[in-house]
Amino acid sequence: MSNKNSGFTLLEVMISLLIIATSFVVLLHSRNQSIIAADYARSVTIATLLASEKMGEMEQGGISSGGDDSGGFEDYPGYSWHSTVSDTAYEHMKEVRVEISFGDGRGKRSVDLVNYVREKEQ
Questions:
Q1: Domain tally for the chain?
Q2: How far apart, in whole angstroms, are the C-alpha atoms of residue 92 and residue 96?
Q3: Quick check: is 4 in a domain?
Q4: pLDDT digits over 27-76, tens only?
Q5: If residue 37 lies in a helix (H) or strand (E), which one and from where to where?
Q6: CATH code of residue 58
Q7: How far is CA 13 from the centre of its chain?
Q8: pLDDT averaged over every residue in the chain
Q9: How many CB atoms lie under 10 A from the CB of residue 103?
């Protein structure tokens, strides 16, 4: 009779488990990075839309003088805005800058929107 061992050695099983465990770690890291990127993209999209909305409100209300203003958004508590209206080299034209900030601490980010608007005639 012949004595054939048909199976895996302990070393082969340990190496295959090491490969599988390493693959899982890489996949979990990749998944976490994609979640972080999706959350950042969502935040930037919201900030861009809020900046566009705030710029529209300022244009509709008319731009008559320079200055700074700031505030928050009732429906979006993590977001705040800061606007600056300044003179340009052209008569009756103002530079309107709207900055939307979001995040806190070291992760604070912002989106800026700049537009040139004709002064409201009085």
A1: 1
A2: 13
A3: no
A4: 999 999 999 999 999 999 999 999 999 999 888 877 766 788 899 999 99
A5: helix 10-61
A6: 3.30.1300.30
A7: 45
A8: 89
A9: 14
The C-alpha atoms of residue 66 and residue 85 are separated, in whole angstroms, by 5
Residue 1 has pLDDT above 90, yes or no: no
**H/E element, 83:** strand 79-87
**pLDDT score of 18:** 97
Structural domain includes residue 2 = no
Which structural domain, as residue segments, surrounds residue 109?
10-118
pLDDT at 107: 81
User: What is the reported pTM?
Assistant: 0.75
Strand partners, 60: none
Question: Is the residue at 109 inside a domain?
Answer: yes
CA distance 72 to 47: 12
DSSP string, 7-19: S--HHHHHHHHHH
**Residue 1, domain member (yes or no):** no
pLDDT score recorded for residue 54? 92
Which is more confident, 81 or 63?
A: 81
Alpha carbons within 13 A on the beta-carbon side of 95 = 10
On whether the CB atoms of residues 58 and 45 are closer than 8 A, the answer is no
